[in-house]
Design brief:
The chain is α/β, with parallel strands linked by helices. It has 12 helices and 12 strands. The strands form 2 sheets. A 6-stranded mixed beta sheet has the order 2-1-3-4-6-5, with helices on both faces. Strand 5 and strand 6 form a beta hairpin. The longest helix has 21 residues. The N terminus is likely disordered.
Length: about 375
């Protein structure tokens, strides 16, 4: 057969080859992606959706979209922040933001640490009610476990605001909260799972770390698993229930066990809180794993400074979906000011964001720009 007669067939063959290769290659969703370019997986629609969502969440050029109107600052208020445990970096980060905002608006803040136990939290909330403050923050624990203390607060007409206290943002009737400050747990769960789907090219063996004793955390991990299941080639290897107060003692042992059970099949992890990866790092290092290699870990909250440090230095964490902890402390103050003025809650919910070494700019936190100026303008401060 002459070259001229063979050319059309050869061209067709090249077209087929290029088409097939093109179906197996695509753009990476992040630096150092071990599956860079691979798009062929058992979930093309889920993979495309995940990549689009991750690109949007990784943007840093966003503007403040919070409230612009509200009551001016009311003077002379005292807020008590009841913390689930101040060893939880998210809880501690909000307390820091709360104190900062209180100084600006002219209020006093007291923090009482519940020490991470039911008895400790109940005692802390009892103490808070006893000092008769202007308002009480429920910082990261289930209000239903403190029903008698909540009843006392209600009888004393002390407004309550939750941070990660119930599963949804906004006001709550049962339990009675003026509002609950949090990102939407469904959004955080979905984008965390999407990051795994996108970064792995739709092929991953995943371990989920959760604290089932906290309803908010339990719901988050369940939603993560549901979203991971939208991709047929993403395998849920295990769901590890480790209470946050026990994380430092239990996580290293559990990680060693997981490495023994799954070996190289374990390629990704997602945790309801970044702190699990601080405790996992020694066991991964001892097993000879590289800090920038698998398992690639993402925290579905809270984005504390140590998480950013691990991400920026490539040490056993690749990403986080940070709560804007400082901004949320400011929001809590603003919500109390609305409650004291007899106004409704603002309804503001911060959008989700993914922080990686590529977009963090070396920062150790994430907060939407402009919120301080926005709240100062509302308060007249």
């Amino acid at each position: 057969m002459s070259y001229h007669r063979a050319a059309p067939a050869l061209a067709a063959l090249i077209t087929v080859v290029v088409t097939v290769v093109g179906c197996e290659r695509g753009s990476s969703t992040g630096p150092g992606n071990p599956s860079e370019g691979v798009t062929r997986a058992g979930c093309p629609a889920a993979l495309a959706k995940a990549r689009s969502a991750v690109r949007q969440a990784e943007k840093v050029d966003v503007s403040w979209n919070g409230p612009t109107t509200g009551p001016t600052a009311l003077p002379g208020r005292t807020i008590v922040y009841v913390a689930q445990t101040m060893t939880n970096p998210g809880v501690a980060g909000v307390a820091k933001g709360l104190r900062e905002a209180a100084r600006v608006i002219g209020w006093k803040v007291r923090v009482i640490d519940g020490q991470g136990t039911p008895a400790g939290i109940q005692a802390a909330l009892s103490e808070a009610v006893g000092v008769r403050p202007s308002g009480i923050v429920l910082g990261g624990f289930d209000p239903n476990a403190t029903s008698s203390q909540l009843a006392r607060a209600d009888a004393a007409r002390i407004p309550l605001i939750g941070w990660h206290a119930v599963g949804s943002p906004g006001p709550s009737r049962h339990p009675k909260l003026f509002t609950n400050v949090t990102t939407r747990v469904g959004d955080v769960a979905e984008i965390s799972a999407d990051w795994i789907i996108a970064r792995s090219g739709g092929r991953a063996g995943v371990v989920v770390f959760t604290d089932a004793s906290i309803p908010f955390a339990r719901k988050k991990s369940q939603l993560i698993e549901k979203q991971l299941a939208t991709c047929a080639d993403v395998r849920l290897l295990a769901s590890e229930n480790i209470p946050i107060p026990d994380a430092s003692s239990r996580t290293p042992q559990e990680v060693s066990s997981l490495l023994s059970r799954f070996g190289s099949r374990w390629t990704y992890s997602v945790a309801i809180n970044d702190l699990y990866f601080a405790d996992a790092a020694p066991a991964l290092r001892e097993a000879g794993r590289e800090g920038s290699g698998p398992p690639f870990n993402i925290g579905a909250g809270d984005g504390d400074p140590s998480a950013f440090q691990r991400i920026n230095s490539g040490q056993f964490q690749a990403a986080t979906v940070p709560e804007p902890l400082t901004e949320q402390g400011w929001q809590i103050v603003d919500e109390f000011n609305r409650a004291f003025a007899g106004k409704p809650a603002s309804g503001y919910v911060a959008p989700v964001h993914i922080a990686t070494a590529a977009n963090s700019g070396g920062a150790t936190s994430w907060d939407p720009p402009g919120y301080r100026e926005g709240y100062r303008k509302i308060w007249g401060r």
